[in-house]
Write a structure and sequence with these properties.
heterodimer, A: 112 residues, mainly alpha, B: mainly alpha, Four Helix Bundle (Hemerythrin (Met), subunit A), globular
């Protein structure tokens, strides 16, 4: 693969480019889910993962099938993300009232 | 060497998305993370527009930026001691997570890069997707649509039920 090939590849954004971005975004989200102590940061990581998945749906819908099925699926993903955020925030607020903390490594009463 | 507008817009939105996504993940201050998430959502919405999904892009802006992000900010403000303690949040199990995530990212990027995807020559040019999505939601996707509405109703009632402050033990 020569330099000219790489430049040519960089100049024509296609399916691969969108997929690469969604892959990196997904990895960032998983990293946030795995490492952050604050429960709300974990929720932000989940939102990043869902956005990456949505980019994949739309990219395949645009470049391979040409139909709008992927876009309809993306709408359902967004709907579920909204429901998930509402429920999760309610749970986090309840945890905060009970434990006075939202650090997920301190909420381990079930272990004892 | 010519760079057309599509390429330029693609790299702009990709840069916005990835840089602010990295800020979300690596920032120590949770407020910075929440505000970087705003720019991530904007960048992703721009990518949606480039993928000819205008309706999804607007939906993304309205629901993610207008709804979920505000909800997350409320969560941050209600659960962090804003006044006296700095809002730094720690990290746990960083080294295993770095290993796992770099392996995951390597696999994903490698697969996405090397696979020879079948790309059909799709129609060039933007079209209005909202009417067609509306027709599909009310014809071939009617059952998932109705189920989603029930799920939203149940989720909202449940969230209000969980989050309300108990006056007395029941």
């Amino acid at each position: 693969m020569t330099v000219a090939d790489i430049l040519q590849w960089l100049q024509t954004p296609g399916l691969n480019h969108f997929l690469l971005i969604s892959g990196v975004l997904f990895s960032l989200g998983v990293f946030a889910i795995l490492t952050r102590r604050n429960a709300i940061m974990v929720l932000m990581g989940i939102e990043l993962v869902l956005n990456a998945a949505n980019i994949n749906f739309l990219a395949f819908s645009r470049y391979t099938t040409g139909t709008l099925d992927g876009q309809v699926f993306a709408i359902f993903v967004i709907i579920l993300a909204a429901a998930e955020a509402a429920i999760a925030l309610a749970i986090v607020l309840n945890i905060y009232q009970n434990f006075n903390s939202v650090n997920i490594d301190e909420i381990n009463q079930l272990k004892d | 060497m010519t760079i057309d507008l599509f390429t330029l817009a693609f790299y702009l939105f990709a840069l916005v998305t990835l840089v602010s996504g990295a800020v979300v993940v690596f920032s120590k201050n949770i407020i910075y993370s929440a505000f970087a998430l705003l720019f991530t959502f904007f960048g992703v919405a721009g990518l949606y527009v480039l993928l000819m999904a205008d309706f999804i892009a607007i939906t993304q802006l309205m629901i993610y930026v207008g709804g979920i992000l505000v909800l997350l900010l409320f969560g941050v403000m209600l659960t962090t001691k804003v006044i006296n303690v700095d809002m730094r949040t720690g990290t746990i199990q960083t080294l295993p997570a770095v290993l796992v995530v770099s392996a995951l990212a390597g696999v994903l990027v490698g697969v996405f890069w090397s696979t020879d995807w079948i790309v059909s020559p799709a129609a060039v040019g933007f079209e209005k997707t909202a009417p067609r999505i509306g027709e599909m939601l009310l014809s071939s996707y009617l059952l998932p649509f109705e189920i989603a509405s029930v799920v939203l109703l149940v989720a909202l009632v449940g969230a209000a039920m969980i989050a309300r402050r108990e006056k007395k033990a029941l």
